[in-house]
Amino acid sequence: MEITTAVAQLSALAQEARLSVFRLLVRAGHDGLPAGEIAATLGIVQNTLSAQLTVLSQAGLVRSERRGRSIIYFASYETISQLIIYLMEDCCQGRSEIRGPVLTATSKPSCCGT
Fold first, then answer.
1. Which residues are CB-neighbours of 102 under 8 A, at least 6 positions away?
2. Average pLDDT value for the chain
3. N or C: which end of the chain has fewer CB within 10 A?
């Protein structure tokens, strides 16, 4: 991953509403959520949500799929995994007490939409 890509992704997440949207989509798993449900759950007006989803989509953190008249949004687990790996690839100088919590968290069955 290039540093500019990582900066763009982190910048997209560095805003309260966008981070809330992304975390909600992560929790939704592979089923995703329609925009209306995201807006209702988080109390975000539709046009503001649209702008937030656009930023997340441009950063590659969210993808969408049309189903009939609805657009369903999904967290991009592959993208966030690549970002986490990028952030952690030079981690810890072999110190397991530092990297252990990250490895434990990502190995849980509920992690990453599995």
1. 84, 88, 91
2. 88
3. C
The contacts of residue 64 (CB under 8 Å, 6+ apart) are: 53, 57, 71, 72, 73, 74
pTM of the model: 0.82
Cα–Cα distance measured from residue 91 to residue 6, given in angstroms and rounded to the nearest whole number: 16
Per-residue DSSP letter, 95: -
Segments forming the whole domain that contains residue 33: 3-113
**Cβ neighbour number for residue 62 with a 10 Å cutoff:** 24
Q: Which residues pair with 74 in a beta bridge?
A: 63
pLDDT confidence of residue 110: 56
Q: Each residue of 42-79: pLDDT tens digit?
A: 999 999 999 999 999 999 999 999 999 999 999 999 99
Strand order across the beta sheet in which 33-34 lies: 33-34, 70-75, 62-67
CATH number for the domain spanning 92: value is 1.10.10.10
14 vs 16: CA distance, rounded Å: 7
